[in-house]
Automatic annotation (TrEMBL), chain B:
One of its GO terms (molecular function) is metal ion binding. Pfam families: Fer4_11 (PF13247). Coiled coil: none annotated. Keywords: 4Fe-4S, Iron, Iron-sulfur, Metal-binding. This is 4Fe-4S ferredoxin. SUPFAM superfamilies: 4Fe-4S ferredoxins. Residues 134-163 form the 4Fe-4S ferredoxin-type domain. Gene3D superfamilies: 3.30.70.20. CDD domains: PsrB (cd10551).
Amino acid sequence: MTKWRYLLALMLSLLLLACSHEQESTLTPTLMAAQKQFETVEQRDLHIAEMRTNHMNLLKHKRDRTVYQGIRTPKHSLNGCIDCHVPVPTVNKTVKHTDSEHFCMTCHVELAVKIDCFQCHADRPPVSEKAVKP
Amino acid sequence: MTNVNLIDRYRRKFLGGIAAATGAALAPGILLREAGANPHDQAVSNKVRWGMLIDTNKLKDGGDAMVAACKKEHGWGDEPNSKPEQQGQWARKVTFQDKASDHKVSLPVMCQHCEEPPCVDVCPTGASFKRDDGIVLVDKHICIGCRYCMTACPYNARSFVHENLENQKPHSPRGIGTVESCNLCVHRVDAGKQPACVEAAADAVIFGDLNDPSSTISKSLKKYEAQQIRADLGLNTGVRYWGI
């Protein structure tokens, strides 16, 4: 009998743990605002929903098409994401992928998912040469 | 029976129609790619094979400008924590002198974009590969940094990134633990432009399609009987030299 009681308690605690975790994950961290905004709220929400669940697959799919087939359309290009989601570096401030406020890192730090994209790829938009020269 | 035949005939006609339609749609697409008008959304094809012909007689600086342009385009060679021999080196100037005549020749040496690349043969993961249009490059996503390709390359064209990098160019990703080499500026070629080194020495280098017998590079190759370095290896390089 006591065995069953222990088991029940264990299951209950596990269930509670799962519930509390679920509740936490609905509170998404505040992300940096993108440089460009969608015209309508529907478009924006669609983009957010698609990207939240699928960005890794889209990026990986596009990456192979780019590397092997030379297809470099702006859609799902990593540079395209970065150009819009990370601010252009200024004299005063450069947002790097090591900062937790970097668009990608905000969630990845929260979820403890390590990405190595930025070991090679640029983590911020390029500074145009004209802008640097006074 | 006649009914079945009719259906078959109808099917054949229909399929033929589809084939004709796609054929008509494809032809202008390919033309577009060659003209560089809107090539971004089309996969590269083995109808073209990119190559370049370097005239060492016209290179006044022996290729220094070409190497510098490559460095600027891809940002290699200034790794702060690497020893000189560990620095990235996508292209380098090689000078050789004939002992008897003292005749000196300098030439820029980079990945020769072989038709039969030894680096691709030895790569254990398939990271080293030849694109359909003849450009040999490294898929750094699956490169494990074993450096077999560096050993296999007879031209010493490849280098290895030994340290964490920052401030890479958006169009030229490069990073720790992977092998890198000249990629014939794929990002530029895909955009219908010429590689950075070709632009830096426009009067000494011809870039073009080796498969097209009427292209300037093919004609010049035949006319000047341009050589490949280490022709004895039979790799049929895409980078050719004249005047060595």
